[in-house]
Amino acid sequence: PEVESGKDVLSISDLTMGFSDKILLNSINLNVYKGDKIGLVGKNGVGKTTLFKIICNKLSPLSGSCDLGARVSLGYYDQEQKTLNNQNSVMEEFWDAYPNMNNFEVRSHLAKFNFFDEDLFKSVGELSGGERARLELLKLMLSKSNFLLLDEPTNHLDIESKEVLENAVVDYSGTLLTISHDRYFLNKVVNKIWYLEDGKITEYYGNYDYFLEKLNEKDKVEEKVISKTEIEKEKKKKREIEKQERAKKQKLKEIENQIFEIEDKIEKCNLDIQDPEVFNDKDRFLKISEDLSNLIKEKENLYLEWENYL
Q1: 15: β partners
Q2: 177, 120, 137, 130: which is closest to 156 by C-alpha?
Q3: How do residues 169-226 score in pLDDT, each as one tens digit?
Q4: What is 8-216's CATH number?
Q5: Most CB atoms within 10 A, among 28, 109, 160, 233?
Q6: Can you give the residue ranges of every domain in the chain?
C-alpha cells in the first residue's frame, strides 16, 4: 500500500446484526490493529459475509457501529467478481486498473499469477472461475488498499495459484481480514482467529491450528458435564473425522505428486517438440504432439479430482 493506516484500523462497538427474526451477532466489541492478519471462521450461516458487508457499509447493523480508522483504505474481494469487465482482454483489464505501468511491468505481474502468452489476450468473459478469481485477486493485492477483506479467496484456485496467493498475502504489508475454510491457507497467513458461534465472536491469538488446539481444550472442559455415552459418541465422531482428514490429506498429496510428474513430462515433450530432428520427422512429431495433448488433458482431470477432495 502507498499509504500506511493509523494504528487503529477498525473499531467494532456494541454491534448487533442480523434480521428481525434472527440475531446473528449480539453486542460485539472488537478491534483490528495495523498489521493484523485475521481469519474469520465459523459454520455456514453464522454471519461471516454479513459482517463483511457491514464493514464495507453495504449493509446496516441493527445497532452499534463499525468504524474505520485514520488513513484506512478498504479493499474487498468476494466470489462474484463483479468488478471485472467481460469485454476486456486479461491484459486490458489489468492495464485499466494500472494505466501507469509499462508493458513489461503488466506482463510481469500477470505472470506471477500464472497468466502467460495467449492467456493475456483472452477476453475476461471467457475465463474460468479460477482464472477470474486470480485476476481479481491480483488487481486487489496491487491496489492502494491498506485493509483487505477477502471472502473465501482460495475457492476455485489450483495448487499453484493458491501458493502464489499465500505468498502475496504473507508479503502484504497492510492489514487483512479473511473468511476461509482452507486450513492450510489460514495456517500460513493469519496471526489471529475470530471464531463466530452462538451470536458472539471469540478472539484467538495464533494461527488456525492454535485455534483448534484451544477449541479442543474448551471442548474437553465442556465434556465433563456431558454423559459418558455422549462423550464416547463425540470421541468416535472426532476420530472418524480425523481419519477422514488424514485420508483426504494423503489423497491430495498423491494427486499433487501425479500432477508434478505430469508437468515434468509436459516440459519434456515441449523440449522434444522444439528439436529440429523431431520437427523434420513427421511421425515422431505427431506422436509427441499426441502425447502432449493427452498429458494436458490428464493434468486437467487431476486438477478436477483435486478440487473435489477440498
Answers
A1: 28
A2: 130
A3: 999 999 999 999 999 999 999 999 999 999 999 999 999 999 999 888 877 666 565 5
A4: 3.40.50.300
A5: 28
A6: 8-216, 228-308
